[in-house]
């Protein structure tokens, strides 16, 4: 990274208000353990200030000084974990799962729609192929920044991206109205739990 092309960085008032409670979670002399939450804090601050979530090296240096640790140790953490971006990403960072359950359910179409959006408008969208996001039962899924959208296909992904482009961020979760991880169309068992029908076999 080139310092000449990176922005100056200091934690803003919002971030500074959170830092003492973050560091206080760790034992005296173990403040370096706060490196990951402070990197996340810096990345979220950059998103607020610039519209692009990333951690410039200048921010890593500030974190190293705050935690009294060698800057190289911060660089190692920031470049090891894929949750941290060392270059600016789009306003909406699309993480497309292509692991087997999502692939079997049509993640190729989802990936194609996301790739087209990122190629057409890199300021708004960036794309990353990722491994399992832990929502296999509602595959295929895409994580957009902090939110996961489930039960996607090509057209539903395109519709989601159009809403995001227009600034209309839909609620996270199933795009077909699925209740949690119930079958499509609604639950088929355990109706007596919070419902009006008895559980099968219950007296």
From TrEMBL:
SUPFAM superfamilies found in the cross-reference section: Thioredoxin-like
Binding site for [2Fe-2S] cluster: 97, 102, 132, 136
EC number(s) recorded for this UniProt protein: 1.6.5.3
Signal sequence segment: none
Record region (Disordered): 168-203
Keywords: 2Fe-2S, Iron, Iron-sulfur, Metal-binding, Oxidoreductase
Cofactor note as given: Binds 1 [2Fe-2S] cluster.
Protein name: NADH dehydrogenase subunit E
Species the sequence originates in: Acidiphilium cryptum (strain JF-5)
């Amino acid at each position: 990274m080139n310092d000449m092309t990176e922005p100056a960085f200091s934690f803003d008032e919002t971030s500074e208000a959170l830092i003492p409670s973050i560091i206080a979670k760790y034992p005296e002399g173990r403040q370096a353990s706060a490196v990951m939450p402070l990197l996340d804090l810096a990345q979220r601050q950059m998103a607020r200030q610039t519209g692009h979530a990333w951690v410039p090296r200048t921010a890593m240096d500030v974190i190293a000084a705050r935690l009294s640790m060698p800057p190289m140790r911060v660089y190692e953490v920031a470049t090891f974990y894929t949750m941290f971006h060392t270059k600016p990403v789009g306003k909406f960072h699309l993480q497309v799962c292509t692991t087997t359950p999502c692939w079997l359910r049509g993640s190729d179409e989802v990936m194609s729609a996301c790739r087209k959006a990122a190629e057409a408008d890199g300021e708004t969208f960036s794309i990353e192929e990722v491994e399992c996001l832990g929502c296999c039962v509602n595959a295929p899924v895409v994580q957009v920044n902090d939110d996961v959208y489930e039960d996607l296909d090509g057209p539903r992904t395109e519709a989601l991206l159009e809403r995001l482009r227009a600034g209309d961020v839909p609620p996270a979760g199933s795009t077909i109205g699925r209740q949690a991880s119930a079958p499509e169309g609604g639950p088929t068992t355990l109706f007596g739990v919070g419902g009006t029908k008895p559980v099968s076999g219950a007296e």
